Amino acid sequence: MKKKSDLIQAVVFSLFILAFALAFILLPDRDFSEQENRYLTKAPAFSLSSLFSGEFTQRFESYSSDQFPLRDLWIGVKSSVERALGKTENNGVYFCSKDTLITRFEEPNENLLEINLAAVNDLAEKTEAQVYLSLIPGAVSIWADRLPANAPNADQKALIERIYGAVNAETVDVYGTLAAHAEEDIFYRTDHHWTTLGAYYGYTALAEAMGLTPAPKDSFSPRVETESFYGTVYSSSGVRWVRPDRIETWVSDEGVTVTNYNDGTARPGVVYDRSKLETKDKYAMFFGGNTPLLTIETGAPGKPRLLLLRDSYSDSELPFLFNDFSEIHVVDLRYFKQSVLGYIRDHAIDTVLINYSLANFTSDNTVFMMGR
Q1: Sequence-separated contacts (24+) of 68-71 with Cβ below 8 Å
Q2: Strand, helix or coil at 84?
């Protein structure tokens, strides 16, 4: 009887393996994973040299993992099982209270940090424009009470204070402002960005540092753009049990003219590209996502010209500045290859705002270009 049972188990197991092998061979490869928000590995080209060097086997392992049949389903099953077993982290993402996913924050690379600090000082010293540095802490710090017990993270507050003490630019206390509103929905639960509410509070910190008068919160009429947003942290975590986030817009785009230089050519741009709401990367609705350069005519004549050196946190904060500047020039150093100092001179920039999340400022290896 036992032999018969063993035989049945062996047959079932073999059929299971055969079915997945056939599915792997017959199903077409996928180019992009909507759940993970990334491009998947393609089949590597075979050669004897790549085989003997180990390159082929390494790439084939990545390919077979990415193209495994029902990959998204198995990732969700794996994370659910791990959660049931008491695991509190996966792929650098903590499973937190209040249906929140938060990315771990590591100590920065000291050499890169020193290079980026030097770039800020070079920019401040080499231009007559007023330079401000605004570093945005993440949910890992402001929402630390949601983290699992004893979750290790570098101290963002101490790091920001250290950076601010080492630069010659004017600094913006975004940390203190966000900490004062930590009980509110100032970050997305499934994404690394702040919400539009968080961006509003960041704008008030900017206004205070720049001597501007921020518009009161009750002067805005938030518009819900979607209630089905799953962000980048959700994609990398493997988690599939949390609720989606809501994206709001607060500022009208009426009377604002945007020019986008995505491919180096001036083309009409938008403040809100609502076609992005039909994609996985719904946060790209703000200005259409990453681009080397945007120029914005705000319809506020007589106000100064602003150059914004940004990461993607700036995208939802930027509309709040429309009433305070006549022109806003938005540069992403990952794609912008011109001289920043030359751009400031050629466009008569009055104010420069370096506006980054702390995580990006301490890890981005293109920040050095702002001093050139």
Answers
A1: 68/24, 69/20, 69/23, 69/24, 69/27, 71/33
A2: helix
Q: What whole-number distance in Å separates Cα of residue 134 and Cα of residue 36?
A: 30
What are the pLDDT tens digits along the chain (372 aa)?
A: 556 665 665 665 566 566 545 545 655 666 555 555 555 666 666 676 666 666 666 665 665 555 555 556 555 566 666 666 667 888 889 999 999 999 999 999 999 999 999 999 999 999 999 999 999 999 999 999 999 999 999 999 999 999 999 999 999 999 999 999 999 999 999 999 999 999 999 999 999 999 999 999 999 999 999 999 999 999 888 888 899 999 999 999 999 999 999 998 999 999 999 999 999 999 999 999 999 999 999 999 999 999 999 999 999 999 999 999 999 999 999 999 999 999 999 999 999 999 999 999 999 999 999 999
Q: Are 340 and 371 in contact (CB under 8 A)?
A: yes
Q: For 30, which DSSP code?
A: P
Structure tokens at 267: 């083309």
Instruction: Tell me the C-alpha distance between 249 and 196, whole Å.
Output: 7
Domain boundaries, the chain: 1-28, 31-68, 100-371
- Give the list of residues 6+ apart from residue 294 with CB closer than 8 angstroms, or none: 258, 259, 260, 261, 269, 287, 328, 329, 330
- Tokens at residue 268, please? 């009409």
Contact 170, 132 (CB under 8 A): yes
Polymer length of the chain: 372
